[in-house]
Backbone:
């Protein structure tokens, strides 16, 4: 005869209410875990989407996701000649604030050569870019409908396709345009600024005897070069050793070549590490609160049964039966709370403003932790129950 | 051979100046099927003797024998007192002490399941007993919904369901009116006789003593008369 089930059945309303409260707490723990996983997935989404084996970036920098990195786009041609390289393609990244009507929103602008690395692997709605200019793919998170015209600087882009789940490490949806468009957005100045710079250049030329008399218009295309990228994506032959190819690129071209793994590590450690620690600490606090709540509830339930426990001892119930009663109730409470929390978070996670990634592995680990917490929390109640003096049932002292 | 016996049982509470001797060299033996009452004023040691006999609060000196098992003061720690109670002793409380989260039938069947009887068999035997005690219609209700008399009859059922060698009852009629108290005492006598159990009842109420084989009076921790 299972005493724990019968006791729970007898106080079902209160037990369910307590389980609901605990479920909200554990649901928050799951949400925090999902937010962390979402941060990681978001942070790595662009890196993984690229399909590159190596990222060639400006020397002494950590690449476009950590700091400013500029490399001439034609370096891609030289890199293609390195043994072991199958393909190389320049990409540009820039964070922009755009407007949809009166509503501002941020995007991670990605410029890539059409059909080359850096383009999204799949389009969830609409079509891929087929024109080399003024078309845009944007992630659904931006909430921009297909066919929308969006102004960026001097140009207007038409949204021809939507992607799903490609965001920056900050959670900003990605917007894909051609490399040339991205370069103009990033490097081309406004007309007034261009005229200003030409006037300044003209003054400098006139003050320099070696080039005196040469009009600024001759030099302008050189100093206003927009053929820059933030990184060159490199795909290797299957037989190539990434470390070996990276070493060659770094040696003769004075660029830094990072493997995709290194780029992911860098993102994980530098960009989201503090968030990870913050969330981890918060989860530990919430789990500690859950432990205290379960321990308090179980202890209170045990105290309310003190006389019944004394009676059980008198009629001969062994300690394991009494301990089992309390342990099973603690576990039942934890499992109920876990179930409520799980249902809650699975029903609501898609409504969070940032990605909440609920992974089965994390759920299993948390379930194990909840069970351990229940066992620990029940120890106070079990200790109290085993110390109940059976004479209490006869009207004596506890 | 007595079903239960106390030999030179002494119980001491406290130490030094606060020492109180609640039982003083008590000797008692009750045969199977025998009905014995323990009477005496408050503080005379009746309940203390009952606790000692049931090994709930073992003696400071002397020995308790239940069936073939003898428990002496110097070896109490080596005895599984709960197993002994589970298998050989039925106890009835003044305040019934039914488990509130178990139904009437489950309260009784619990004793059997604690002794390893399968649940189905335990419930079958329980329902038979409750039938004989006119409690079958209350089998699936919780103790809180039963009257005082029904609760005490249920407590008696719980004490006898396992056919124990000894039934110990502490003021079983104290919370009942005379008619219901007599009914419970009659039941106890009948079941004790039928099942061949030694029955020891602590009571204040002389009106309930009809049919008992022996009546012991206790004063200041000693049995003074038989």
Residues:
């Amino acid at each position: 005869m299972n005493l724990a089930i019968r006791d729970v059945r007898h106080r079902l309303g209160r037990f369910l209410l307590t389980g609901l409260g605990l479920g909200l707490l554990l649901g928050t723990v799951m949400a925090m875990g999902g937010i962390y996983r979402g941060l990681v997935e978001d942070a790595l989404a662009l890196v993984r989407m690229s399909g590159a084996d190596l990222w060639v970036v400006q020397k002494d920098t950590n690449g476009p996701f950590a700091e400013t990195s500029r490399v001439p786009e034609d370096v891609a041609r030289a890199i293609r000649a390195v043994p072991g390289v199958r393909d190389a393609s320049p990409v540009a990244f820039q964070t922009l604030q755009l407007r949809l009507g009166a509503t501002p929103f941020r995007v991670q602008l990605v410029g890539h050569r059409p059909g080359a690395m850096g383009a999204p692997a799949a389009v969830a709605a609409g079509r891929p870019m087929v024109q080399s200019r003024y078309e845009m793919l944007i992630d659904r998170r931006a909430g921009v409908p297909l066919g929308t015209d969006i102004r960026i600087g001097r140009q207007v882009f038409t949204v021809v396709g939507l992607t799903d789940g490609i965001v920056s490490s900050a959670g900003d949806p990605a917007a894909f345009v051609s490399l040339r468009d991205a370069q103009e957005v990033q490097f081309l100045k406004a007309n007034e600024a261009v005229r200003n710079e030409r006037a300044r250049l003209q003054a400098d030329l006139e003050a320099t005897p070696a080039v005196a008399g040469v009009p600024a218009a001759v030099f302008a295309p050189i100093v206003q070069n927009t053929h820059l990228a933030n990184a060159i994506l490199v795909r290797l032959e299957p037989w190539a050793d990434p470390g070996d190819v990276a070493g060659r690129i770094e040696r003769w071209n004075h660029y830094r070549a990072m493997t995709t793994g290194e780029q992911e590590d860098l993102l994980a450690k530098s960009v989201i590490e503090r968030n990870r620690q913050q969330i981890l600490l918060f989860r530990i606090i919430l789990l500690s609160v859950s432990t205290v709540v379960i321990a308090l509830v179980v202890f209170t339930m045990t105290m309310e049964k003190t006389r019944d426990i004394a009676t059980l001892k008198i009629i001969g119930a062994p300690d394991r039966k009494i301990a089992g009663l309390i342990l099973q109730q603690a576990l039942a409470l934890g499992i109920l709370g876990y179930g409520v929390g799980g249902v809650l978070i699975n029903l609501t996670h898609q409504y969070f403003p940032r990605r909440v990634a609920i992974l089965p592995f994390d759920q299993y680990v948390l379930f194990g932790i909840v069970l351990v917490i229940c066992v620990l929390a029940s120890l106070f109640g079990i200790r109290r129950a085993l110390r109940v003096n059976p004479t209490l049932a006869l009207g004596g002292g506890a | 051979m007595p079903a239960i016996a106390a030999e030179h049982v002494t119980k001491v509470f406290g130490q030094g100046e606060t020492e109180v001797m609640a039982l003083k060299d008590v000797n008692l033996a009750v045969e199977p099927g025998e009905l014995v009452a323990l009477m005496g004023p408050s503080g005379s040691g009746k309940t203390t003797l009952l606790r000692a006999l049931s090994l709930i609060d073992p003696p400071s000196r002397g020995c308790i024998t239940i069936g073939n098992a003898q428990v002496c003061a110097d070896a109490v720690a080596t005895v599984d007192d709960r197993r002994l109670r589970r298998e050989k002793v039925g106890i009835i409380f003044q305040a019934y002490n039914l488990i509130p989260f178990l139904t009437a039938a489950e309260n009784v069947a619990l004793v059997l399941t604690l002794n390893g009887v399968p649940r189905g068999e335990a419930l079958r035997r329980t329902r038979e007993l409750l039938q004989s005690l006119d409690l079958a219609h209350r089998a699936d209700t919780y103790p809180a919904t039963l009257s005082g008399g029904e609760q005490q009859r249920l407590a008696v059922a719980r004490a006898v369901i396992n056919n124990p060698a000894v039934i110990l009852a502490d003021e079983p009629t104290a919370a009942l009116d005379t008619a219901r108290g007599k009914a419970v005492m009659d039941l106890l006598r009948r079941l004790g006789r039928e099942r061949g159990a030694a029955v020891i009842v602590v009571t204040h109420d002389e009106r309930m003593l009809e049919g008992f084989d022996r009546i012991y009076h206790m004063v200041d921790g000693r049995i003074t008369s038989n």
